[in-house]
UniProtKB/TrEMBL annotation:
Superkingdom of origin: Bacteria
InterPro entries: DUF3427 (IPR021835)
Biological source species: Nitrosomonas halophila
A Pfam family hit: DUF3427
Protein name in UniProt: DUF3427 domain-containing protein
Domain DUF3427: 98-233
Length: 239
């Protein structure tokens, strides 16, 4: 279903609320998921916005102009079964918040292919996704002294991140982080406690998108970031 100001694309994840005729409530102006049997007896699934005509008939309107509106006659109503109300389109990244991912699996979330040369860095910028990906290991044991950045949780929703030593507020990466809202760039935070777990590379926990709050210093910058989706109080952070 393409079209309209907020088109739904093939492959989008949809949040649907199951309904039945006894508890559907008012459906006028709502977008519904409808099961339909065509003339050949095959099942079709439609997303249509319900309107009422001047004659009092229900009209199923498609936002895609390639599809005609459907006037629900008594005969057609027997072919339709309304089973859900559309609540919204779900960003696949939202479903990954709180999940653990290996470094090489993270690029796929953004439609990218893993490249060791790019993804061994702690700050990766993805041009096509307009995304800054921060990969943080809290325990810096084994790191060279000049790579022991100071990263820690300030509270359950606020994170202190220290940039690479070459990053200043006026450098390209520093300026982009400070102005990410204006630039419509997103910052995504992945954190792990240690580099290794049981002798093997440890996964990162995805904490979702974060917003720049403030910074201090230069080369490196100390940046305070806030989770855009509050972290559940019953779950602990990487410490």
């Amino acid at each position: 279903m393409n079209g309209g100001k907020r088109p739904i694309q093939d492959g989008d994840y949809l949040l649907l609320e199951h309904i039945n005729p006894n508890q559907a409530g008012s459906i006028t102006g709502k977008t519904l998921a409808i099961e339909r049997l065509d003339e050949a007896g095959d099942t079709q699934y439609l997303l249509r916005t319900v309107q009422k005509s001047d004659a009092g008939e229900y009209v199923l309107k498609a936002t895609n102009p390639e599809y005609d509106d459907i006037v629900v006659t008594p005969e057609l109503s027997e072919q339709f079964r309304t089973f859900a109300r559309l609540r919204g389109v779900v960003d696949p990244l939202e479903m990954m918040i709180g999940q653990e991912l290996m470094r090489e699996d993270i690029p796929e979330l953004f439609g990218e292919t893993f490249n060791p040369g790019n993804w061994q860095s702690g700050h990766v910028f993805l041009k096509d996704a307009n995304a800054h990906v921060l990969l943080v290991t809290l325990n810096k044991q084994g790191k060279a002294e000049d790579h022991r950045y100071i990263d820690h949780w300030i509270d359950e929703n606020t994170f202190h991140w220290q940039s690479q030593h070459a990053t200043t507020p006026d450098s390209k990466r520093g300026w982009e982080l400070i102005n990410h809202k204006t630039l419509r760039h997103f910052i995504h935070l992945f954190v792990r406690d240690n580099k290794l777990r049981a002798g093997k590379a440890a996964p990162f926990t995805y904490y979702g998108p974060v917003e720049y709050q403030r910074h201090e210093g230069s080369a490196p910058m100390s940046v305070v970031l806030k989770l855009m989706q509050p972290w559940p109080t019953d779950r602990q952070h990487e410490s």
